[in-house]
Automatic annotation (TrEMBL):
Species this protein is from: Bradyrhizobium macuxiense
Any one annotated GO CC term: cytosol
EC number(s) from the headed UniProt entry: 2.4.99.24
Protein name, as recorded: lipopolysaccharide heptosyltransferase II
Gene Ontology BP, a term: lipopolysaccharide core region biosynthetic process
InterPro entries: Glyco_trans_9 (IPR002201), LPS_LOS_Heptosyltrfase (IPR051199), RfaF (IPR011910)
Catalytic activity of the protein: an L-alpha-D-Hep-(1->5)-[alpha-Kdo-(2->4)]-alpha-Kdo-(2->6)-lipid A + ADP-L-glycero-beta-D-manno-heptose = an L-alpha-D-Hep-(1->3)-L-alpha-D-Hep-(1->5)-[alpha-Kdo-(2->4)]-alpha-Kdo-(2->6)-lipid A + ADP + H(+)
Alphabetized CDD domains for the sequence: GT9_LPS_heptosyltransferase (cd03789)
Superkingdom, taxonomy of origin: Bacteria
Enzyme superclass (EC): transferase
Family: Belongs to the glycosyltransferase 9 family.
Length: 354
């Protein structure tokens, strides 16, 4: 075997061409982080094709992920097993002759279709008593505190030591596609700040995006508010406060969010999927954290700035809760718009001198 001295991941049988299926988590940020798993597998087996199961929402990300052969799109409901739809998916998986499935979520539901498809090796952590569904069972998930360690370790041989660093997720967005997107949306070619004000869980949403947008616009920057339909009302509020230089770019197509983050000079986001998208693209990204821990949840790509309030020591922080139940959301309210804008200006200054 050849050892990769940077990643600590060994290359195995280069003659092996049996395809691999990854069943990832389907939240956007988690889906992006799943690209590390792809990169580990591609290092171990350079000639084994790797496919990703994806929801319609996450499917646009697959085309930007190097090393992924195809995305298998299936929207299984979150609240029930839906055995009929599982059988339909299993038939599609069976036709693709996968030799291995890595089932990242620890649920029964995630393992049903790979089992019905007869995929010979089905690797995953013990969860919900999945004996029989997972036949290459792993143990010790709770001993791995970080989400990235839990997921990417499944791509290593059982019992292997974790590498000193994981390969970072990557999204490669062609420059000509970004240019066409800017032209189609009438966005010009000047520097722009992309704001990601949404998140899963209200407690992770920073309070002062409208004021920050106004300050950026007054400083001569274009400002883009990026997100899905759930952020439409918030985007309109930000536009109303920020003025004519602020654009609402929220919509239903995640590809729009990817291109906005690729085109932006700096991205500022809550702990959300858009933060992970921007970091994986390589856009200088500022992540705003309050109830969640940057150690556990920040992109391993690294951030241009990790923003947290430092005025007060809060015993409840980080609470990891989706709803604030203590201290009136001070972990977010005590971080001002001026602090975030000044930090962004420092990031922009560093970019300009490179």
């Amino acid at each position: 075997m050849n050892n990769d001295s940077v990643l600590g991941i060994e290359t195995e049988d280069e003659a092996d061409t049996r395809p691999i299926l990854i069943v990832p988590y389907m939240w956007i940020g988690d889906f992006v982080r799943g690209h590390t798993v792809v990169r580990v597998l591609r290092k171990r087996w350079p000639n084994r094709p790797v496919d990703l199961l994806a929801t319609r929402q996450c499917a646009p990300l697959v085309g930007y992920m190097p090393g992924v052969r195809a995305g298998i799109v299936s929207d299984l409901p979150r609240s029930r097993l839906a055995l009929g739809r599982q059988r339909t998916l299993a038939a599609e998986l069976r036709a693709r002759n996968y030799a291995t499935a890595l089932v990242l979520p620890g649920t029964w539901k995630a393992a049903i279709a790979p089992t019905l498809a007869g995929i010979p090796e089905r690797t995953g952590f013990f969860g919900e008593g999945r004996f029989g569904l997972i036949n290459a069972m792993r143990w010790g998930e709770k001993k791995l505190p970080r989400f990235i360690d839990q997921n990417a370790s499944l791509a290593l041989p059982n019992g292997a030591a974790l590498p000193p660093e994981w390969p970072v997720p990557q999204l490669q967005v062609p420059a000509d596609e970004v240019a066409r997107w800017r032209q189609a949306n009438g966005l010009g070619i000047g520097p722009a700040i992309a704001l990601g004000p949404g998140s899963v869980g209200a407690s992770k949403r920073w309070t002062y995006y409208p004021e920050a947008a106004r300050l950026f616009a007054e400083g001569g920057f274009d400002v883009w508010v990026v997100g899905g339909p759930a952020e439409k009302a918030l985007a309109q509020e930000i536009v109303a406060v920020g003025g004519a230089r602020v654009r609402d770019l929220t919509g239903t197509d995640l590809r729009n969010g990817v291109l906005a983050m690729a085109a932006a000079s700096v991205a500022i986001s809550n702990d959300s999927g858009l933060m992970h998208i921007a970091a994986a693209i390589g856009t200088p990204t500022m992540g705003i954290f309050g109830p969640t821990s940057p150690y556990l949840w920040a992109p391993i790509n690294g951030l241009a700035a990790t923003m947290q309030q430092t005025k007060t020591k809060l015993s409840c922080q980080p609470c990891q809760s989706t709803i604030c139940r203590m201290n009136d959301h001070r972990c977010m309210r005590d971080l001002s718009a001026v602090e975030v804008v000044e930090a962004a200006e420092r990031v922009l200054a560093q970019i300009s001198v490179r």
